[in-house]
UniProtKB/TrEMBL annotation:
It comes from Streptomyces eurythermus. Belongs to the clavaminate synthase family. This is TauD/TfdA family dioxygenase. Keywords: Antibiotic biosynthesis, Dioxygenase, Iron, Metal-binding, Oxidoreductase. InterPro entries: AlphaKG_dependent_hydroxylases, Clavaminate_syn-like, TauD-like_sf, TauD/TfdA-like.
């Protein structure tokens, strides 16, 4: 596979990005979830290096075969706070790192969150949590199944951004990404047909009103037959019948064939197009010593207006 999913900032571009993020960190009230701070962030995102802005614009137009863009050599903090250890951890303070992911995300589209997930914070922490090792969530450390983010949700993110602040101790935690644009050619015609029918249901997590919550049946592939969007979570999506189950098995094998593992380093930002690309994570061994793996995460919508009815006061949080 080619490496055209990687974009590396030059040293000058890294410095410029750092200067913008540092200036944004000074904007009162220095809180990510504050409307005026985010307004400033949106405006200042225009000051990011031009080559980066062009690449983000091109990615938004067409996420290419991989459906992911890995931006490398973003500024990273020389002296970083200890990795948070608690569940549902979020970054409310407008640190330079929070500013960096918010700036890039704002160039792509609208940074959004869900009231029922991580208390609606726009910049969230992805960190391992003691006692949750086995959980299929970003607090776990066993292999995390390939998934579309919030696959159950009609207004799931269009893009997910993950910025590495600190890698895991052994450098073995790999972000796995698998694009349906690469996998679809490996699927027999009849399998694609079954995957395109409303024969699958995705569990609604308890925080969003599940498991009692009604999950309507949906197709796994939709849109163009040869270049479809994908909606599946291999932990939470269940086939309704035997043929649908077989189709999911074939899909999974095809996705495994095209999966890439990305070992994020500090200053690496992975942007995943959540319409065409699934993500997951390999296992790793946390130590809970303040030096564990730490990512910031944002969700991005490309069309803010579409979710207006779910957003109070035309804010960023969907409920
Ligand atoms: O830990 C990772 O690399 C990805 C976790 C994940 O799926 C997420 O935070 O949405
Ligand atoms: Fe995820």
């Amino acid at each position: 596979m080619t490496e055209d999913h990687v974009f590396t900032l030059t040293e000058a571009e890294r410095e410029r990005t750092g200067a913008v993020a540092d200036a944004l960190a000074e904007v009162e009230p220095r809180l990510v979830d504050d409307r005026s701070w985010l307004d400033a962030c949106r405006g200042m995102s225009e000051e990011l290096p031009e080559r980066l802005r062009r690449r983000l614009r091109a990615f938004r137009h067409d996420p290419r075969a991989d459906g992911m863009l890995l931006v490398r050599n973003l500024p990273s903090a020389p002296a970083l706070a200890p990795t948070p250890t608690v569940q549902e951890s979020v970054e409310r303070a407008a640190t330079p790192a929070a500013g960096t992911i918010a700036l890039v995300s704002s160039q792509l589209g609208e940074v959004i969150a869900y009231r029922d997930e991580k208390s609606g914070a726009l910049v969230q922490n992805v960190v391992p949590v003691a006692g949750r090792e086995e959980q299929q969530s970003n607090a776990g450390s066993v292999p995390l199944e390939l998934h579309v983010e919030n696959a159950f949700h009609p207004y799931r993110p269009d893009m997910v951004a993950l910025l590495c602040l600190r890698p895991d101790h052994d450098g073995g935690a790999g972000l796995r990404v698998a694009s349906i644009r690469r996998a679809v050619a490996l699927l027999p015609h009849d399998v694609r047909k079954v995957l395109g029918e409303e024969r699958f249901r995705t569990e609604v997590p308890p925080s969003f009103g599940g498991p009692g919550g009604q999950a309507p049946p949906h197709p796994v592939l939709y849109g163009d037959f040869d270049d479809p969007d994908v909606r599946v979570d291999f932990h939470a999506t269940h086939p309704e019948d035997e043929q649908a189950a077989e189709a999911m098995t074939v899909l999974r094998a095809a996705l495994d064939t095209v999966t890439r593992a990305v070992y994020l380093r500090p200053g690496d930002l992975a942007i995943v197009d959540n319409r065409v690309t699934l993500h997951g994570r390999t296992h790793f061994t946390p130590r809970y010593d303040g030096e564990d793996r730490w990512l910031h995460r944002t969700f991005i919508h490309l069309d803010h207006r579409r979710s207006r009815a779910l957003r109070a006061d035309n804010g960023q949080v969907l409920s």
